[in-house]
């Protein structure tokens, strides 16, 4: 019997590639796979068929294209969605070490360091950022962390890079549900600098760490203004306050392996019942606001990705809270300090 941990067993089932190139094609050819399922993030959907054709033509292995785009390595194609595939190729994401895999998976991280570190450091300095700075990055731009840290050091910055828990594969890495790397150095920094594109990760980082969060786009060399954490938190506190008298709760549980927190849902159900509230568990895979229309609940608590509640609240007919917010609504946690629903 093997003594390997879940994380070690998962490592045996995945491989990591920097980009779509000959290394990936050769690995697919040598894998012995009979059929591949390719899954891409929403930003690559337009080119997904071309990528599938490249892999198929270069490897000689049939490729099915997953219609559902992935938001992360927490929602990979299920056996039901891709019953014929024995190898998954997932673009744009790193492995999550503690998420179980049902098939061998090749993660293609699409690494791109971006611009010149020396020039980017000057952009940061010109922005007047505090000199005790924490660096956080999306997986695509992790290669920039060390050279930018060195360049910032030459300009007098004291840069810290944190190592997160076993849901994060790399130091400095951010996931939408987990910023424990940043949290591990928060007490030592005055602000965080996120390296990447878009506002998704900076907003999550602002919720998780009570520090100013700036975002630097390494491809355009542009620095965004800091996230207004106060406004984000006040909005959530108002939502929590609005449902403190709610009697009937729906507890949302994702069936995706990387987001399924059934034990948490059961514990929350027990807490609700102990407080004289009714609570029922609802199962789903990809949640749509229409799925909650017409149900006899006053409010919901989502045990799946925390960003469902935080980013998409306007899409649902009733308020949706995270588990810490639910405990605030029950009166078991104070509104301050605000607690991000870190997914471990």
Structure, described:
The longest helix is centred in the C-terminal third of the chain and has 14 residues, at 229-242. This protein has eleven helices and 14 strands. 29% of the residues lie in helices and 18% in strands. Mean pLDDT is 94; it is low at 1-5. With 344 residues, the chain is of the alpha/beta class. It folds into three domains: 6-108, 3-Layer(aba) Sandwich (Rossmann fold); 117-227, 3-Layer(aba) Sandwich (Rossmann fold); 230-330, 3-Layer(aba) Sandwich (Rossmann fold). The strands form three sheets. Strands 1-5-4-2-3 form a five-stranded parallel sheet, covered by helices on one side. Strands 7-6-8-9-10 form a five-stranded mixed sheet, with helices on both faces. A four-stranded parallel sheet has the order 12-11-13-14. The chain has helices at residues 6-11, 22-30, 48-59, 117-126, 145-154, 180-183, 200-208, 229-242, 262-274, 307-311, 323-330, and strands spanning 14-17, 36-39, 63-65, 87-91, 104-108, 132-137, 158-160, 191-195, 213-217, 222-224, 248-254, 278-284, 299-302, 320-321.
